Amino acid sequence: MMRLLTLVFCLALLVPPSVAQQPAPPAAITRLQQMEGIYQKELSARHIPLLGKYLVELQRQAATATDKTAYEAEVTRIQQVISAGGVLDLIAMQQSLSGAMPMPAPPPAPIPIERKQALIALSPALAQTVSPTPAANAETATIGEADWRIELIAAGTYDILLQYACPELAAPLTIRVEFNGQTVEKELATDRATKDAQTFRILRLGSLTLTGDHRGETLRLSAGDKTSPKLILKSLLITRPRPAAPNP
Predict the structure, then answer these.
(1) Rounded to an integer, what distance in angstroms lies between the CA atom of residue 139 and that of residue 143?
(2) 14 Cβ partners below 8 Å, 6+ apart?
(3) pTM metric for this prediction
(4) For residue range 100-159, what is the model confidence (pLDDT) as tens digits?
(5) SS3 sequence, 2-50?
(6) Distance of CA 155 to CAs 33, 39, 160, Å?
(7) SS3 string of 154-184?
(8) Would you tell me how many other CB atoms lie within 10 Å of the CB of residue 102?
(9) Percent with pLDDT over 90 in the chain
(10) pLDDT at 163
(11) What is the pLDDT of residues 152-167, one digit of tens each?
(12) Which of 4, 61, 100, 219 fits as disulfide partner to 179, beta carbons 3.0 to 4.6 Å?
């Protein structure tokens, strides 16, 4: 009897964890996915402003460089990182900078396009052109018009959100976004003015529907008269619409 119990115990120790453990229930998996989504958004919010400053400095250096090849390649890489959400593998970057080669690892599962393109944040620092020209490395800018190059955006429907301040608003201000032959337009009413230039609000401009994937196209934002701009831009957000709340 003792030998039988010992054998059963040894066999239990040899069972792989994947067999011995039961899979997580669906509710736990959903919760983990929600936590992962929140984590990715928090990383994007921290990384994108830093990447934007780095991108501005790269473009400034490239303007005076004799050989622009390396700068242009790095600009393209950073723009792609920002378009994909701005989340960086900091450990791999540190190993690369220190000269240590990262250990090989199996490639991760492909990220669904809907998740990869869940958020594109366009700040003044990332714009190709801004009128009037803001100060170097400015995190916000008073704009009449701005253009951004969108490296990649997948087919689908997107909400266009504006993060803005506008303390001087005596009359409604027409805000327009143009991309791929489509126009999204909305008036910023006087009751949507902010108390000062440091207080920012969110305005939903409308939605944009793309029937196919688009790469390297220009998105333009205009706000009223370019010669006397009033809108202070912090970021223009392109995001998937929130799912409708279930009926009670």
Answers:
(1) 12
(2) none
(3) 0.56
(4) 544 544 544 444 443 444 578 899 988 999 999 888 778 899 999 999 999 889 999 999
(5) HHHHHHHHHHHHHCCHHHHCCCCCHHHHHHHHHHHHHHHHHHHHHHHHH
(6) 23, 25, 15
(7) CCEEEEEEEEEECCCCCCCEEEEEEECCEEE
(8) 12
(9) 40
(10) 95
(11) 899 999 999 999 999 9
(12) 219
Q: Where on the phi/psi map is residue 137: left (φ > 0), alpha (ψ -120 to 50), or beta?
A: left
Q: Report the pLDDT value the prediction gives residue 246, as an integer from 0 to 100.
A: 56
Residue 49 banded pLDDT, cuts 50, 70, 90: low
**Strands 201-210, 182-188: pairing kind:** unpaired
Q: Is residue 20 predicted with pLDDT exceeding 50?
A: no
Query: 150 with 207: CB under 8 angstroms?
Result: no
Q: Three-state secondary structure along 37-71?
A: HHHHHHHHHHHHHHHHHHHHHHHHHHHHCCCCHHH
Establish whether the linkage from the previous residue to 167 is cis, with ω within 30° of 0: no
- Tell me: pLDDT of 208 over 50: yes
- Which two tokens mark 201? 């609000």
To which residue do tokens 């790095």 refer?
A: 74
Q: Residue 169: count other Cβ atoms within 10 Å of its Cβ.
A: 17
Neighbours of 40 (CB within 10 A): 18
Give the closest residue to 130 by CA, choosing from 195, 52, 77, 68.
52
Mean of pLDDT over the chain: 76
